[in-house]
Amino acid sequence: MGQAICKELWESLLDYKTENWVFLVKKGYQVTDTSMESSIITKVKGVAFTNTSEFGEQIWDVADYVIPPQGENIFFIVTNLVVTPNQRRATCAESDRIPQAWCYEDSDCPPGEPVLTGNGVRTGRCLRSKNMMGICEIYAWCPVETKSRPMKPLLGAAENFTVYIRNFIHFPRFNFSKSNVLNSRDRAFLKSCQFGPENLYCPIFQLGYIVNSTGSNFQELAAKGGVIGIQIMWDCDLDKAASKCHPQYNFRRLDDTFSGESISSGYNFRFARYYHDAAGVEFRTLLKVYGIRFVVMVNGKAGKFGIIPTGINVASGLALMGIASFFCDLILVNFIKKSDFYRNKKYEEVRLAESLQQDLATEAKDSAEQPETQDGNSDEKRNGCECSQLLLSNRSGDSKNVNVNVEQMQNLQPVEVQPEVLDGS
Fold this sequence. Notes:
The chain is an alpha+beta fold. The chain has helices at residues 2-14, 18-25, 62-65, 189-192, 207-213, 218-224, 307-334, 339-346, 352-368, 378-395, 402-411, and strands at 30-33, 37-45, 48-52, 56-60, 66-67, 74-93, 102-103, 121-127, 134-142, 162-171, 176-179, 204-206, 226-237, 247-253, 268-276, 282-305. The chain contains eleven helices and 16 strands. Strand 15 (268-276) and strand 16 form a beta hairpin.
């Protein structure tokens, strides 16, 4: 008996329970806080040199290629551009790359109407050669942009630029705060360190490392532009030491990731720099810039042991286990093909005939052990002997004979014992 109890206890300890694992892995015993407060500061470092026909020799620093310069959680790095210098307000031909600007005669260019997706307002003239399709004249900043994007990025050297990303978080429910920067008084630390899997608390990231971590090629992305997401995830178990709460980084490509031939891939926009000549007339330089837009996203949660969620989850788990067992038994006993097999394993069958036979055998044994009595007790003795014989004859027989023996016992009649007559009395 004791061995059986020990065996059942041991098997119960080794028994796999899904509910127990879910409770532990999902930390159902903790109070959680997802209302994390966060701040982001970014700062890009790097210098590049270019020599083009539009700009000549040019030094590019953060004031030239970082937009906006404030260092927010979203920033843009210029890597390629198309320059249209010395634009002035005047009349000129619209770009021939715009179908709405094509014309055959002046009536095709109604004056005062802007060219859809174009650069200016129609003047009413169709500028064309004889017997050939022409282009509407417009009033705009002339000359209009006509050049195409260079296939090789102007600032390919930006691959070696670095960005400093400082993230500060706070969980108000637990009054817990932390930063992704190593708490050090060494000023040289940030000037010499660089982020890596073994250096999570150095917030200096090389742009090439970030882009390559997404599976993209930096030079190809720099030529046409794109959007990169930098995700910082904080998952803090406050039942452990604060030093165990680490930032986790994930880098992803967020823009269209189709092939380079896709018209929807890339990222670019335009802006202008304005000047005045010696006569005070305004002119400008139009820049269509391609580059990489970085978006820093911070998510996180913190958890700590709480008696209330522990009690609720334990109680609901126990209730769920009871309901599940009931429905499983219901299906297995009644609806599967081998329900008889499961029923035999689930329930223990009590045999009434065998139990009755054992009870009768016990009574017969007790009667046989009683001492013999004289006179009036002889009837009981005889009856007891007959009952014992009946029971003993059935102890080695089949259980089907039990009912017959019971009936025989019920039909037994008391036997009258006649006194012996002695000769001569």
